[in-house]
Amino acid sequence: MTLTTWLSLTAVCLLGAMSPGPSLALVMRNTVNHGRAAGLVTAISHGVGVGIYALATALGLAAIIAAQQALFTTITLAGAGYLLWLGASAMRAASPDGLETPSDPAESAEPAAGNEGHGSRAAIRDGLAMALLNPKIAVFFLALFSQFVSADADAGTVAILAGTAATVDAAWYALVATGLAASGGAAWLRRRRVWIERLTGAVLVFLALSTAATVIG
User: Fold this and answer.
1) pTM for this structure?
2) Residue 7 lies in a domain
């Protein structure tokens, strides 16, 4: 894998993680209600869950390439179509009011009184469950990794793909938890929701179109 390819993968993974959704809401909720430590543990465990999905996806795609190139081409085109749909949907975002965050505690950066005891096991459970039980994550990685897995992908490349996805995801949500522990973190995210969505959408559309052009050409 070239440095340019890896940077492209990292950028897409980062924008995917930044896009507001239930995972962001969970990290925010645990941080606001139970403190920074709970938010960080949730972020790391969510990243581990994402890494598991990413590893399974990359291994499966590598096996398909080795067995049936035509099927892989079909998956690649289908994945490009899905990324195009995701990107177009994100770019239609026009209002900052739709961020999925907890309705009552998101304005505060301090843990609610009496709730600091949210244990590490509960936070680990929350993060893993959110990642592993969300089928949209599996579909996203199938679409995404079909753009980056090649016929000569070896174990090292697969490890880089999965490791990058897990690390970027955990790092982003750890940053969210740390920011929320300081003042104004939730408000900062809400104010920039529209631009995060639009930037994510533009990158996904570009990736989808360039991949489809390469396969068709």
Assistant:
1) 0.68
2) no
